[in-house]
Amino acid sequence: MLFDKSLPKIALDFFHINIFKYIYMKETLEILKLLSDESRVRILMLLEKTELCVCQIMGILNISQPLISRNLSLLEKAGFLGNRKQGKLIFYTLRKNMPKKHSLILSALKEALKSEKILLKDVESLNDCEEFRKKTGRCDMETFLEYMKIRHNARRS
Predict the structure, then answer these.
(1) Rounded to whole angstroms, how far apart are CA atoms 126 and 130?
(2) In which element (H, E) is residue 96 found?
(3) Within its chain, how far is the Cα of 27 from the centroid?
């Protein structure tokens, strides 16, 4: 190979190390860019607690289904999430075997945001949502739209 003959081995090693560092930095920056969206961080913090389907996340965060689905898709493609199907529903969870840099970034986020009011409210809403699901005995879009309506009316009172 022409490249190997024209450069001494030390220069090639230096070149390969710098390329690796550059690629690693680019990947890390892409992850940080992905996590610069508040909704995505809120979703990750909820999924850190438990497995959830799209309609549950909608009910908890009060965000539209298309936006939730898009964010879940981006987080899954980036390597943060796994899923399983149960009938028509898809349940999402944090991947157990996510890449190390993902888990380090997620741990840092969790620590840095542990007392954020919006995330504490999300956990409270998660608990309310779970109670509502247990009362109705159902987990579907209709149930969580009903939950969102009740929750919205409760906030107005």
Answers:
(1) 6
(2) none
(3) 17
- 140: DSSP letter: S
**The pLDDT of residue 10:** 60
Q: Residues 32-87: pLDDT tens digits?
A: 999 999 999 999 999 999 999 998 999 899 899 999 999 999 999 999 999 999 88
Q: How far is residue 143's CA from residue 68's CA, in Å, rounded to a whole number?
A: 17
* Dist CA 30 CA 78 (whole Å): 9
Which residues, listed in sequence order, are joined to residue 52 by a DSSP beta bridge?
A: 92
Q: Which residues contact 60 (CB under 8 A, 6 or more apart)?
A: 46, 52, 122, 125, 126, 129
Task: Name the residue with tokens 């939950």.
Answer: 147
Describe the strand order of the beta sheet including 89-94 as a list of residue ranges.
Answer: 52-53, 89-94, 81-86
Q: What is the mean pLDDT of residues 113-126?
A: 94
